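Need residues for this backbone.
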C-alpha cells in the first residue's frame, strides 16, 4: 500500500466490497495492530485461569506479550511481560504461579503482583541515577485499562476509550447467555486450550464465524458421514447421542432454513447468529439439568434462560463465542498471513457432569484441530488467502443482501440468515477504527 493514509483506506473499504490488499498488505497489518489491537478491548482470559494469588497466564495482545495475574488483593492485573531492567520476559511459560512476587530470572529484580518494584539487588548501585525506586519506570508496566465482564477479562492498551461494557454493547449477551445457563450463574474454564496457526489473514477467520451460507457446503462430507452413523445407531440402539447431531445438522438443515436464521449486528463489529439446532432433547440428562436450573432460578426464569436462541456471537476484533455450548475461540494475529486461534471451553458451575460432556463433545468434534469440520474451514481460509495474490480480481465481495438489511438505532438485523451483513458490519468498525471512515 502506498501512502497509508485515511483516504487510501477509504478507497479500499466500500460498504459492499473490500480491496484484496486489506488482507495482504503488511503496512495495513501494522496499522491494524496499532489502531485496533493496541486500542480496542482485547480478550485476555477467564478469571478462573488465575484463581489464587500469584497464578498467572501469558497472552498476546496485538504484538504485546502480556501477563494476566491474580494479585494479593484478589484483583486480576494485566502487565507487560517485560522486566524494566534490561527487558527480559518475566514469565517464559504459558501459565503457573509466581508465589508472592515476580522475580526476574536475569538479575533478580523483584516485583509485587501488581507490577510495583519490590526490591532490586545492591540498591545503592542506583543511588543518584535516574533508575531510583521513586521513578515509575522501575515498575512493570500495566495495561492501560483492565476490565472483566462476568469473569471474562479484557484489557486495552489505550488509556482512553469506551468502557468494556459500552464496547461490548448488545454483544455482551454472549457472556450472559453462557453464564446464565450455569445453575450457579458462573462458568469455569477447562484449563487446556487447543492452539491452531492458520496461514491466512485474521479477518478471514472472523468473516467465517457467522457465515451461514457455508456450513452445508463446506461441511457437507463431514455432515453426511455423521448422518450415516446416526442412522446406524438408531437402527440398533434408538436415538443417537447429541454429539452426532452437532455434525449432521450441517447437512440436515437445508439451505433455505439457514437463510431463515437471522443475524443481529451491533456497533463495533459485533454480531449474533440465532440458533439452528435443537439443544433441549428430552433425555434424562437434560431433564435432570433443567430440574437443577429450576431449583436455582425458579421455573419462569429457567424457561427464559433456556429459551435464549443463540448459536454464535462474534465479538470483534478477536473473539468467537458459542454460548449455549460453552465454546470460545480467541483470535491472535501473528502476521498479515498468519493467525493464531486459541480454542477454549467452559464448565457450567453447578450443572451435572453429563452437560459438561456435551460441551466437551462439541469442543472435540467441531472446534478441535483434529476434527474434519475445522479442517474443512482451514482449507477454505487458506484458499481465500492464496486467492488474494491472483490478478483475477481486486475485490472481495460482500454484496449478498446488501441494502436489504433493517437498521434501527445502529443495530442491523438481516432478514436473511445468509446475508453478508456480519462481514459488512465488521468492516464498518474496521474502517472507523483505522481512520478511513465511510
Ligand atoms: S533483566 Fe530483569 S533483572 Fe535484569
Ligand atoms: Fe465452518
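Answer:
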Amino acid at each position: 500500500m502506498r501512502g497509508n493514509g485515511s483516504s487510501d483506506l477509504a478507497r479500499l473499504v466500500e460498504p459492499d466490497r473490500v480491496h484484496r490488499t486489506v488482507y495482504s498488505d503488511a503496512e495495513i497489518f501494522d496499522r491494524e495492530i496499532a489502531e485496533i489491537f493496541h486500542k480496542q478491548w482485547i480478550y485476555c482470559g477467564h478469571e478462573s485461569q488465575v484463581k489464587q494469588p500469584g497464578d498467572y497466564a501469558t497472552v498476546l495482545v496485538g504484538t504485546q506479550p502480556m501477563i494476566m495475574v491474580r494479585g494479593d488483593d484478589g484483583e486480576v492485573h494485566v502487565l507487560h511481560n517485560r522486566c524494566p531492567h534490561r527487558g527480559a520476559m518475566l514469565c517464559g511459560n504459558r501459565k503457573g504461579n509466581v508465589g508472592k512476587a515476580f522475580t526476574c530470572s536475569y538479575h533478580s529484580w523483584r516485583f509485587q503482583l501488581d507490577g510495583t518494584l519490590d526490591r532490586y539487588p545492591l540498591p545503592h548501585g542506583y543511588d543518584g541515577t535516574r533508575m531510583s525506586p521513586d521513578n515509575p519506570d522501575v515498575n512493570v508496566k500495566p495495561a492501560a485499562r483492565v476490565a472483566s465482564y462476568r469473569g471474562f477479562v479484557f484489557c486495552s492498551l489505550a488509556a482512553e476509550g469506551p468502557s468494556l461494557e459500552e464496547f461490548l454493547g448488545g454483544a455482551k449477551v454472549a457472556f450472559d447467555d453462557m453464564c446464565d445457563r450455569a445453575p450457579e450463574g458462573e462458568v469455569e474454564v477447562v484449563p487446556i486450550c487447543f492452539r491452531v496457526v492458520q496461514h491466512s489473514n485474521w479477518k478471514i477467520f472472523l468473516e467465517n464465524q457467522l457465515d451461514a451460507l457455508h456450513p452445508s457446503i463446506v461441511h457437507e462430507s463431514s455432515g453426511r458421514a455423521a448422518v450415516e452413523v446416526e442412522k446406524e445407531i438408531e437402527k440398533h440402539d434408538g436415538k443417537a447421542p447429541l454429539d452426532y447431531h452437532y455434525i449432521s445438522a450441517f447437512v440436515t438443515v437445508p439451505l433455505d432454513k439457514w437463510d431463515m436464521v437471522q443475524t443481529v449486528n451491533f456497533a463495533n463489529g459485533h454480531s449474533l447468529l440465532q440458533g439452528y439446532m435443537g439443544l433441549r432433547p428430552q433425555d434424562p440428562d437434560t431433564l435432570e439439568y433443567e430440574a437443577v436450573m429450576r431449583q436455582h432460578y425458579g421455573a419462569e426464569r429457567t424457561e427464559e434462560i433456556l429459551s435464549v436462541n443463540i448459536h454464535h456471537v462474534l465479538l470483534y476484533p478477536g473473539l468467537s463465542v458459542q454460548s449455549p455450548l460453552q465454546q470460545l475461540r480467541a483470535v491472535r494475529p501473528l502476521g498479515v498471513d498468519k493467525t493464531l486461534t486459541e480454542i477454549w471451553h467452559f464448565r457450567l458451575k453447578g450443572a451435572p457432569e453429563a452437560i459438561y460432556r456435551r460441551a466437551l463433545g462439541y469442543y472435540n468434534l467441531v472446534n478441535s484441530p483434529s476434527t474434519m469440520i475445522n479442517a474443512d474451514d482451514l482449507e477454505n481460509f487458506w484458499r481465500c488467502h492464496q486467492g488474494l495474490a491472483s490478478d483475477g480480481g481486486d475485490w472481495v465481495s460482500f454484496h449478498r443482501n446488501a441494502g436489504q438489511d433493517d437498521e434501527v438505532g445502529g443495530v442491523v438485523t438481516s432478514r436473511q440468515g445468509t446475508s453478508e451483513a456480519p462481514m459488512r458490519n465488521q468492516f464498518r468498525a474496521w474502517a472507523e477504527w483505522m481512520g478511513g471512515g465511510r
